[in-house]
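General statements about sequence and structure are easier to judge against a single worked case. In the encoding step, the backbone of a single protein was reduced to a row of integers, each denoting a local shape. The record that follows shows the chain in one-letter code together with its fold in token form.
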Amino acid sequence: MMMAKKWAKFLRDFENFKAACVPWENKIKAIESQFGSSVASYFLFLRWMYGVNMVLFILTFSLIMLPEYLWGLPYGSLPRKTVPRSEEASAANFGVLYDFSGLAQYSVLFYGYYDNKRTIGWMNFRLPLSYFLVGIMCIGYSFLVVLKAMTKNIGDDGGGDDNTFNFSWKVFTSWDYLIGNPETADNKFNSITMNFKEAITEEKAAQVEENVHLIRFLRFLANFFVFLTLGGSGYLIFWAVKRSQEFAQQDPDTLGWWEKNEMNMVMSLLGMFCPTLFDLFAELEDYHPLIALKWLLGRIFALLLGNLYVFILALMDEINNKIEEEKLVKANITLWEANMIKAYNASFSENSTGPPFFVHPADVPRGPCWETMVGQEFVRLTVSDVLTTYVTILIGDFLRACFVRFCNYCWCWDLEYGYPSYTEFDISGNVLALIFNQGMIWMGSFFAPSLPGINILRLHTSMYFQCWAVMCCNVPEARVFKASRSNNFYLGMLLLILFLSTMPVLYMIVSLPPSFDCGPFSGKNRMFEVIGETLEHDFPSWMAKILRQLSNPGLVIAVILVMVLAIYYLNATAKGQKAANLDLKKKMKMLQLLVASNKYPESPEKVHFALLFKSNAICEHPENKHCGTAIFLLYP
């Protein structure tokens, strides 16, 4: 008996230890107790994204960056690993490093630094193959983990109806009797209070009567303003792209800070101010808070998606220009090498010989590495987005809260309850910023392997910085709502942005030729040719033949068709099971009503449905002839 008690205590302590090891759990619970599940769902989502990026960083760091650093040729050994002579003087300046040029550009942070040798080091590590497979693996893992999270949420929800006896369940089962910490008890009390507010709001929202014609007019007007805002944003992005192309043709030394960063700043400012306009338009629609949040998220999603794809189209134009420029540079390098060798040989007499011809890597002309340029753009966009977010929090939330707090005593009206008041936490804007930042990570990590690591630093600092800002500078929303069902909505948008982010990357891998003098795929016509090269050199001929047959387009199309049919069948089966569950729930509710009214069927022959209970408590009714197993019956 004593051993059983000690074992039970050990299991309980181990469960507490596991709960204590969950990162930021206490912070998120404190936020949930003060601001409700809607705000806490954002921080849970941020923590989940942190875990995903940690796996991506481990893959890229351990299989790409670390092998190149340990076994690859050192800095200065090749032109791709050396800063050009014309840039050496300013390569270590802060402004150059902040722009991720100079020494940062010629490092393991970007694609162009990596060598194209099949194997490196004493382990004969196949770096080009590893680089390609890790890029594909990151995409596959991201799809897998997002779909798994969505499936888990559906499984946890179970299709159940959590509105049955909602308040009774909350009254009798909300408190945790194992709590022994006063601060934890206060947080739990506040959390229960907030849950009751959310449930009451949900109940009232189902009973509100609306003026249908007025609501329709206001919603039409709000959508008209939204389309105007989206159109204006698209035109502004298009104008900024055209200006950036003009600036790219000018001397960088003649450009100021704004001209160099105009494209990134315009996108960041649009992402900062347009959600506020959408929030104002949403006031006209008078939706339920959860539905209003989803509409707001959808509109901001459309805004940021349009901005992102305009940015990608601008990059594609720049990439095409770089590819054309590479052709000219390649021809000029051939002439340059021939002239240098001819001049070197002419410097010696016919009977004399000199040392081998050598040119320092910093003096060798090189082509514009478009892959590194793409990686730099996404890193810059990520960093500028982080800085814009933090500056917005400091100015828009912290300074505003300080003004309201200290100037309220000497102002003409109540600043806390009037204008400007404390700010509410912008759930929609922060969720969409997190999702689109992750989309940029997925899109740019193939060309900048360091991007997942940079994003980990961003998410780590954001968790502490935004938790502090929420608890110190924000107030709970005036309209509370339950957000437990919105997690899959966030994940659905994340899955969509994952799909849309990987499409341009796959297009670049399959369709565009890699740069001829930088990166692990230089010298090949297409990046995916590294797979065929590996099959040819590292696999037996019979296995290579089988793998080539498996990659036959006819077989691939047949497999895709079978997968589509399987998905359709499983979806139809799931819908049927869900409909059957709903039908059973309706019958159980009817049965509960019969039990409550003490009405029982007179003839068991008319029975269509029966529910068995182990308890005999309901057998007290004298007319119940089926009391032996406590059977309740329903008519068909």
Remarks:
- The longest strand covers residues 609-612.
- The first helix runs from residue 2 to 21.
